[in-house]
Amino acid sequence: MSSEYAKQLGAKLRAIRTQQGLSLHGVEEKSQGRWKAVVVGSYERGDRAVTVQRLAELADFYGVPVQELLPGTTPGGAAEPPPKLVLDLERLAHVPAEKAGPLQRYAATIQSQRGDYNGKVLSIRQDDLRTLAVIYDQSPSVLTDQLISWGVLDADARRAVAHEDS
Predict the structure, then answer these.
(1) CA–CA distance, 20 with 62 (Å, rounded to integer)
(2) Which segments within 44-161 are labelled E, that is strand?
C-alpha cells in the first residue's frame, strides 16, 4: 500500500471516528479492548498497513460500508457532493411528539439498522427524506423547511434538496 493511499485511508478512518464523537481511547473502550487506541491511531496516521479483513471489521464496528473508508470512492467523482442531511437528534427530542413522532420512529429505525446509537446526530440519505416527505404528506423541500424550523436540520440542507430538484 503506498504511503499516500495509507494516509488517505487513515484520514477517512479518522473522519468516521470523529463523526461518531469517539476519541481513540473511546474506540478502545466501546470495543471493550478489541480495537487498541494505539493501533487505530497508527492506521489513521498511515503508519501501519491495515489488512482487508481488519478494515472490514473496523467498518462493521463503526457501522459503515467498507467502501466509505476507501480513498477515491466518493460518488460522482470530483464534483462537490451535495451537503449531507444530518438530523440533530438532541433537538428532535425537544420537538413535540405530535409533530415529530413519525420522524422520531424513522430515525430510531435507522439507528437500529446501523447500530448507531451516538444519540447526537444521524445522517440520512435523500431517499430517506423523500420517504419522510410521503409520510408527512409534503414535498421534500417543504418538509426540509419544516425540519429546519424545528432546528432538526441545518439550513444547508436546503442546498441538498435544491441539488436533488435540479
Answers:
(1) 8
(2) 85-88, 121-124
Angle at 161 between CA 73 and CA 63, to 5 degrees: 40
Residue 64: partners with Cβ closer than 8 Å, 6 or more residues away:
16
pLDDT in tens, 51-107: 999 999 998 998 888 888 888 755 434 444 555 789 999 999 999 989 999 999 999
Q: What are the C-alpha distances in Å from 116 to residues 108, 121, 138?
A: 9, 10, 28
**C-alpha of 121 from chain center:** 8
* 24 Cβ contact partners less than 8 Å away, ≥ 6 residues apart: 17, 37, 38, 40, 41, 44
Beta bridge partners of 124: 85
- Please state, in angstroms and rounded to a whole number, the distance separating the CA atoms of residues 152 and 146: 9
Give me the amino acid identity at 110: I
pLDDT of residue 91: 92
- 36 close to 26: Cβ distance less than 8 angstroms: no
Contact at 8 Å (CB) between 74 and 113? no
Q: What ranges in 63-156 are assigned the alpha helix state H? A: 89-92, 97-114, 126-136, 140-150
Sequence-ordered list of residues with C-beta below 8 angstroms from that of 143, at least 6 positions apart, any chain: 129, 132, 133, 136
Residue 124 DSSP label:
E
